[in-house]
Amino acid sequence: VIAKAVRTEVLWRGVPLAGLFIFFTVTVDGFASVNDMFSILEGFALMGLLSLGLGLTIISGEFDLSVAAVAAVAGLLGIKLIHLGWLPCLAAVGAASLLFGALQAVIFLWAGVRSIVFTLGTSIAVGGLAFIVSGSQTLALQSSEFSYSDAVTQQWAVLSPFSLVTLCAFVALGFALRLTRWGRSVRALGAARAEARAAGVRVTATIASCFALSALLAALAGLLASISGGSAAPGGFDPLLLPAATAALIGGVAISGGRGSALGIGIGVMTLEVLDSGLSLEGAQSYVQSLATGALLLFLVATEVVGPRVRRIWLGRAARTEGAVSLQR
Amino acid sequence: VIDRSADTQVDAPAPWTARILTGVTAWFRSILRRAPKAIIVAIVILLLFGWISTPAFVSYDNVQNIVRAASITGLVAVSMTLLTVGGLFFSLSAEETASLCAITFAAALNAGFDLPLAIVATLLVALVVGVGQGGLIALGGNPIVTTLGAAATLVGFTSVITGNTTVRPNTHVADFIGQSRPLGIPTQTFAFIGVVILASVVLSRTVFGRRLTLLGANPDAAEAVGIGRGWPILAAFAATSLAAGIAGVFVVAQFGQGVTGQFPTLNIDCIAAILVGGTSITGGHGSALRTAFGSVFIATLDDFMVLRGYDAGVRTTFVGVAIVGAMCFFSRRQRAGSK
């Protein structure tokens, strides 16, 4: 099962990634050097965690827009608490984020509000909280705390402790999604909520677990990125929300829910990181990347929307009713 | 309540002036009956509280400030209410569209366009942006994801065409639009009131408004009675985008510049105004009047917090909590009512 899944994902999602990679290797000096690969993987480590959590909620048929704000608060708390040592700091931030994520899910399910708008609201509130926590300033590590930063930033060829953590998270969640009962529940809830509920899937518990994991991964991303960078600013992760969502969609996660895998999300994040690294090595401004990411997201939305219609026209009259059914979902 | 004006009409046909008068009073009474009492009470409490703690709060100048701030936000928020009522949540690209239109307007004036021509060109740009997003969403795209993508595209686009600089118009022909005060009231407020009346009439009295409401309340029912998603959604997005375009024109006329990121909190403020006013996020329920009061409330709160010296974080947190709270409260109430 796994081998088959890996093969189809790599075949379909890997083609643009490989194409982009070869293109930049040929056209841009210094691309795909060991140091550039390291920086690409560092970018992957940060955005991968955000995108993995966000992607998980999209697969479950919801949408967690609060990941960037959670990462910002977690980063600020990390800078403030790291003097206690790794374990207490990770435990405190991790527990708080798990609780926050689960609570979000419980509340929006209770209130009957769609998660995408609910988390839009909470992301505004949590984003404001980040300004309060930091006193509207950039927080930096004390010089006595630089050893914590060094522990995360050490370079092992192209890997670092940070990117290893992210890779482990991808492997663990990938197996959990594909092989466990929980993973099947998540995908079933995303594909057909009413049917899954009727079949006995526990809706609140499963959705809450997805949002708790999403908040935990976002908090981990914010914490590790802030500590490795040595500083954290409120609103510092806001520009990552859009690429994180785009990466998940590139990786084959359907906005309508039910479809997607950790491997696909990983390939999606790598595609964006390669694009990002190539563009910035060519000297493009950050707003060019914003333009590229935004246009890419619109294109992905368009293909998801228009795709079934085109297919319906190709397949002709016989498939028309079937296409209509899938559109309604 | 027995409507006595209707009885007299049956007995003897009244002259047309009297009939119009009774029609208008009946309409006015129905507005009063449906007025969002909670939000009005909240505004009054806030004003009283502000007046007691900071007497300068309820001065003529400050109230004028509040009204002007509420007007620009309200203009866009009231149009965006069409989206919310239609079950399309919000547009997250309003501030980016407004910035694009501000830049377009300033650049058009610089290129030597007449004032009316510059305004028409700006609104055309807004229309194209709105119809583009509306088209994708009418086909089935998620409104939040689509407008989020459009917002990033617009930010990138405006930064690229301006080279990330500020565009200043080299004439003062447009200044009267943003700075004059006929009858002592800012022009923005006239536009705001105009949009509120227009949106109210459109939502409650036109076929388009009814269709949009049904689409929001029950998409399946709308489909069953043969109402397509296409035109209502396209029109609602065009209206929101046009309102953002008008806001862009006003801001250039008032401050004499257009730049990427000119409206840093417009999206959040619009969402807050719509939700705090009591329009339901689940669609099918809401009114322009509610959003109008919602934007006055947000502007009053904002002004109060600035006067009291709270920093941006406290303000943003408060607005965020208000958004989440209003969302849950009105959604729960609507569900309880429908059971």
Kindly describe this structure:
- The complex is a heterodimer of chains A (329) and B (339).
- Chain A has 14 helices and two strands.
- Chain A is mainly alpha-helical and 329 residues long.
- In chain A, strands 1-2 form a two-stranded antiparallel ribbon.
- In chain A, helix 6 crosses helix 10.
- The radius of gyration of chain A is 20 Å and the shape is globular.
- Chain A starts with a helix and ends with a helix.
- The C terminus of chain A is likely disordered.
- With 339 residues, chain B is mostly helical.
- Chain B is 76% helix and 0% strand.
- Chain B is built from 15 helices and no strands.
- Classes of the chains: A mainly alpha (329), B mainly alpha (339).
- Chains A and B meet through helix 4, helix 5, helix 11 and helix 13 of A and helix 7, helix 13 and helix 15 of B.
Key descriptive features of the protein:
heterodimer; A: 329 residues; mainly alpha; two-stranded antiparallel ribbon; 14 helices; B: 339 residues; 15 helices; 0% strand; globular
Q: Estimate percent helicity of chain B.
A: over 70%
Biggest interface: chains and residue counts?
Answer: A-B, 50 and 48 residues
Strand order of the largest sheet of chain A: 1-2
C-alpha Rg of chain A (nearest Å)? 20 Å
Strand content of chain B: under 5%
Low-confidence stretches of chain A: 322-329
CA-atom Rg of chain B in angstroms: 21 Å
Largest sheet of chain A: 2 strands, antiparallel
Element-level helix/strand string of chain A: HHHHHEHHHHHEHHHH
pLDDT averaged over residues of chain B: 83
Low-pLDDT windows of residues of chain B? none
In one word, what is the shape of chain A? Answer: globular
Note the main sheet of chain B: none
Count of alpha/pi helices of chain B = 15
Rough outline of chain B = globular
